[in-house]
Amino acid sequence: MKIAEYHSLNDIRVVDVPLPEIRRGDILVRTKVCGICGSDVLEWYRKMRKSPFLGHEVTGVIEKIGEGVEKFKEGDRVFIHHHVPCFICHYCRRGKYTMCPTFHHTNFDVAGLAEFVRVPELNVKNGGVIKLPDSVSFEQGSLFEPIGCCMRGLKNTNLHAGDTVLIIGAGFTGLVHAHLARMMGAGLIVVSDFFDFKLRKAKIMGADVIINPGKEDVREKLHKANEGRGADVVVVTPASTRVIQDAINYLDKGGHLYLFGPTSPDDFLSILPYTFFFSELSLTTNYSTTPIETNAVCKLMEEGKIKTEGLVTHRFSLNEVQEAFGVAAKAEKSLKVIVSFE
Question: How do residues 176-185 score in pLDDT, each as one tens digit?
Answer without folding.
Answer: 999 999 999 9
